[in-house]
């Protein structure tokens, strides 16, 4: 990879791994098409103990956001409370009372999926559409996240690369964690899968644990949102394409390694290839530590994963509470 030429490196990979037209001109799902009913049935058969693990961080003010791109942490406000009920201020008959609340939050501020309208490549959105024809002030008119509401259920596979490569403490990272700036390469993914004895299959929802989330929860958020991080290398674009990954998520803010792998200005180049060219739905800020411990205890790294988006009409992303069932 030429670290001085992000434009060329992105363009070459975008063309090589582009899925435009693969599922028809009207496609709205991209690689989520690779999850079929037979795959979901097989994933359901992976449930043995019934243990369910939530992979979401808490949606509250104690979050990582620092205001970049107007992203804030969720703001939770009570509209009706028990105090109102005790004082008879709600106007209900025969002593009944209740509580109501509201939340205000950017859709990309916590555990979430990036939809296909979230990133563009040189003015083009997924499937070669003009970006301005897809996402307007009215929202994503074509690939809005509502179209994926029933799609993200299938075989989940966890590659605990942090555990596999970070067995010893390193600079700024404890055992089981990758240091900030560590780029996960295709050979790292292959070696981790081999060590865990798990096969990667077409239609899988791939989860990659780096250990950065554990570090942030232990030491404080710091620069977790947008700062240096371990993550997926640009060179994994071909690996994701070749293995037929349906969707992929990590325990980091931005999925890919930060700083990005160039000696000149670059910003999230893997996103630029994966979302508008591969049609790959990406997940970020997933809490994978409990799942990693459960998988290690059970000695298996595949499970039923249900991670549906909220059907928010025209949205380009969605918060999610993913559930892995072992």
Automatic annotation (TrEMBL):
Pfam families listed in its UniProt record: Cyclase
Top-level division of the source organism's lineage: Bacteria
First and last residue of the signal peptide: none
InterPro entries (UniProt xref): KFase/CYL (IPR007325), KFase_sf (IPR037175)
PANTHER family to which the protein is assigned, alphabetical: CYCLASE, PTHR34861
The protein, known as: Cyclase family protein
Organism of provenance: Leucobacter allii
């Amino acid at each position: 990879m030429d670290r001085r030429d992000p434009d060329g490196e992105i363009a070459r990979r975008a063309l090589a791994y582009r899925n435009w037209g693969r599922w028809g001109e009207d496609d709205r799902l991209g690689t989520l098409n690779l999850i079929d009913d037979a795959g979901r049935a097989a994933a359901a058969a992976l449930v043995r103990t019934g243990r369910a693990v939530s992979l979401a961080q808490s949606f509250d003010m104690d979050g990582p956001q620092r205001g970049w791109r107007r992203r804030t942490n969720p703001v939770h406000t009570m509209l009706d409370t028990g105090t109102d009920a005790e004082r008879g201020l709600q106007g209900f008959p025969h002593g009944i009372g209740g509580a109501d609340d509201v939340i205000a939050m950017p859709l990309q501020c916590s555990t979430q999926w990036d939809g296909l309208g979230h990133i563009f490549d040189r003015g083009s959105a997924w499937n070669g559409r003009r970006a301005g024809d897809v996402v307007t002030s009215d929202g994503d008119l074509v690939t809005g996240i509502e179209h994926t509401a029933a799609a993200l259920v299938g075989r989940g596979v966890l590659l605990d690369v942090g555990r596999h490569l970070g067995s010893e403490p390193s600079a700024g990272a404890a055992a089981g964690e990758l240091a900030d700036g560590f780029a996960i390469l295709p050979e790292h993914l292959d070696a981790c899968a081999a060590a865990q004895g798990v096969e990667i299959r077409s239609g899988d929802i791939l989860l990659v644990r780096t250990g950065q989330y554990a570090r942030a929860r232990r030491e404080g958020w710091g620069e977790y949102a947008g700062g240096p991080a371990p993550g997926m290398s640009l060179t994994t674009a071909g690996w994701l394409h070749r293995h037929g990954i349906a969707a992929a998520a990590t325990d980091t803010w931005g999925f890919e390694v930060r700083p990005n792998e160039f000696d000149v200005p670059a910003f999230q180049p893997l996103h630029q290839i994966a979302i508008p060219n591969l049609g790959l739905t990406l997940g970020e800020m997933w809490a994978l530590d409990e799942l990693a411990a459960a998988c290690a205890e059970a000695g298996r790294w595949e499970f039923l994963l249900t991670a549906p988006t909220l059907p928010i009409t025209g949205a380009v992303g969605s918060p999610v509470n993913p559930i892995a069932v072992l």
